[in-house]
Amino acid sequence: MTTRYRVPALLIALLAGAALPAAAQKGPPTAVLVSGPDVGADAPDFRLPWASKDSLGAVEDDFVLRKQGGKVVVLAFYPKDFTSGCTAEMHTFSDRYADLFPGDVVVVGISADSLESHRQFAASVGAPFRLLSDQSQRVSAMYGSKGDGGYNRRTVYVIDARGRVAYRDMRFGALDPKAYDRLKAAVRAARSS
Fold first, then answer.
1. How many domains does the chain have?
2. Which tens digit of pLDDT belongs to each residue from 49-66?
3. 1 part of a folded domain
4. Is residue 7 one of the residues assigned to a domain?
5. CATH code, 118
6. Is 46 part of a structural domain of the chain?
7. Which residues, at least 6 apart from 50, have a Cβ–Cβ distance to it below 8 Å?
């Protein structure tokens, strides 16, 4: 995998807000344009520490995306451990793991939480996958998933065995059964390509 990817320079909402006089800027912005790698683009490589329900990963054993070559990888960016939406999402991933992610699909959850928080959260939801700690939100920013206040936005990417983005959902609905159906279909399509 290469680390190159296309990022459109769409900062219109931010620039428009900065151009307004202070008196005209009232309340939060109504639209924020974000971007990450498009479907078909090479997935940006990264390295992050991880925790599972049973342990913390050793420094020399960080999760490295390019080392997953030949496998379909699901990257699930989420806001915060132990919050209601994130708990619902990770419970669903755990409960439906074999159905959603068959075979040797690699699944990782990514938030800015600490490794110890991730270990406890993974244990509480029975996660059969690793949770990656992106405390600086560097990786989240590369994938258009960095939100405000140190929290990620809820986004999901499926990376195919060639290291390309096969699917992305930039507003994954943790409580929407159809979001999981779309993810399941995307994973199956990526496995068969």
1. 1
2. 999 999 999 878 999 999
3. no
4. no
5. 3.40.30.10
6. yes
7. 56, 57, 62, 63, 108, 115, 118, 130, 131, 132, 133
- So which residues are the catalytic ones? 86
Mean pLDDT value of segment 16-29: 44
Range of the domain at 90: 12-192
Cα–Cα–Cα angle for 85, 91, 94, rounded to 5 degrees: 145
- Asked if pLDDT for residue 5 goes beyond 90, the answer is no
Q: At which residue do the structure tokens 């068969």 appear?
A: 192
Is 2 a domain residue? no
